[in-house]
Amino acid sequence: MGSVNFITHADVLQLIAKRTA
């Protein structure tokens, strides 16, 4: 869609996993 949506849901899950870790 836009340059902001270049992040995939997998990357988001990784960020959440790192933040919760």
From TrEMBL:
- Alphabetized UniProt keyword annotations: Transferase
Q: Which GO terms describe its molecular function?
A: transferase activity
Keyword field contains Transferase: yes
- What is the recorded name of this protein? 3-deoxy-D-manno-oct-2-ulosonate III transferase WaaZ
Can you name the source organism? Salmonella diarizonae
